[in-house]
Design brief:
The protein is mainly α. It contains ten helices and no strands.
């Protein structure tokens, strides 16, 4: 039954898959726009409190999803500061929750990559008269494989999220129902065919992302050896 739902092009199933991909991809794009500049700034910047910010950023990578869901819910609820936007129980609210979860991951991995490259090339760049700030684009480009790995890691985190998105999205049919929340719901209802079909697709996505990360990491190692 599960296989027939996948191969038969079940409209409800694939609508859920497409919504899941849309929400997670949008979240990763926004998180990258925030996290990459932040990570690069922490890598090359030298200012008071930098080490404390790095520790905080690393700690935020382990944010409990339900706590993030609660925070976003309180901000978007009618009595919250952003209640006027009426985003609660919409895909937008789910994107915001995933952005909060994914941004620290992308920022921390970006910082590690850029900091390593800065330590390796700083003398050469300084001898050419390139300031730390001006060297950021060069370092980001040189570390593009590691940055792609960070993006894939963020996407994997986002697509597998259930706690935060169900709190702010409400798991509303045809509106905010994504793969993870549907699996939980259909399992509780005893509709195992739909749950297994979505589970298989989610596992397929997870395996694909993991394989891509591994390939990119291996490519980065080979590139590093050639430059050594």
């Amino acid at each position: 039954m599960a296989l027939s739902l996948i191969l038969g092009g079940d409209s409800e199933l694939w609508a859920i898959v497409l919504l899941s991909l849309h929400v997670s991809l949008m979240a990763v794009v926004i998180a990258a726009a925030i996290g990459m500049p932040l990570g690069a700034a922490l890598a090359v910047g030298r200012f008071p409190g930098r080490r404390a910010l790095i520790v905080l950023l690393n700690a935020l990578m382990g944010l409990p999803p339900v706590v993030v869901g609660l925070m976003v819910y309180l901000m978007l609820s009618r009595s919250g500061p952003l209640g006027v936007l009426e985003l609660l129980y919409t895909p937008g609210a789910m994107i915001i929750a995933q952005v909060v979860l994914v941004t620290p991951i992308i920022a921390a991995l970006t910082r590690q990559s850029v900091e390593t490259l800065d330590a390796e090339y700083s003398e050469q760049l300084r001898s050419l008269g390139v300031s730390r700030l001006a060297s950021v684009p060069t370092l980001l480009w040189d570390g593009r494989v590691a940055l792609l790995t960070a993006l894939l890691a963020g996407f994997g985190r986002a697509i597998a999220e259930v706690g935060a998105v169900i709190m702010v999205g409400g798991n509303i049919n045809h509106v905010t129902r994504v793969m993870t929340t549907t699996i939980a719901l259909e399992t509780s209802k005893g509709n195992l065919a739909m749950a297994l079909a979505l589970g298989a697709i989610l596992i397929g996505i997870a395996v694909t992302v993991t394989a891509a990360v591994s390939l990119l990491a291996a490519r980065g190692e080979r590139t590093g050896l050639r430059h050594a």
